[in-house]
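Quick one: structure for this chain?
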Amino acid sequence: MAWCRGVDPVRILGTFRGNDQGGWDPADHNFQLYTIVIGAQTLHATGYAMGIAKDGRVGGDDPAKDEAAIVYFGDGATSQGDVNEAFIWSSVFTAPVVFFCQNNQYAISEPLERQTRVPLYQRASGFGFPGVRVDGNDVLATYAVTQDALNKARGGEGPSLIEAYTYRMGAHTTNDDPTKYRIASEVESWKLKDPIARMKSFLIRQQVADNDYFDSVKADADALAAKLRADCLSMPEPAPDSIFDHVYPHGSPELDAQRATFTRYLDSFADAPAGGHR
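Got it. Here's what it folds into:
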């Protein structure tokens, strides 16, 4: 989504590498900052959507001026209290927000039955708004369902939940071993449903694109991947005291005092003997 909204992926990689706090201007791309706290983004989106409604930018005479928010999260996040609180607030305030759950069936390492006893999309009915499950490996179906939900939210019909049912082919993180909690035959069966391969086959069958086109796409993708790797590796390491730079727009005496204390602490290491500790 960040890519589609025009956010430079390097800005996101800086957050994951720990070089910055992902501080792009959300207004530049109408795309909010990432949240690392799992599920917290649903509350952020709900609050933003409530603001949209308070500003009268839903259900107006000119649909082109109506707005809505959409927020993405995984199946594991649905077990977080923040997500359920967001469902409550969005429902009772008829907030124009679409909750998009990417259900890859395993969260980090737990199967879906450890997260819920009913299909996730059915949870929406308990909070008083509609939910729908879509084949998350079908690009066009997912787009159509999302577009419909956003149009309804913009029209003043309130929130909805989309459960995109898909599968995580690889590990959740670099220290995750999926072979410990799922079998190889299951992975192999889902390879046949790969959304990129399905979309490629569809475009070829419809004679929308040919192999030359896909060869050019692959070349572009390889060049982009090489650039992103190079840009990520060349990111400058931030100075330790830079954590104070963006707390307040104009600083504060308390912050200045904290920076001075931290700077003295850092400077104290300059006198440490080689190989020693202080």
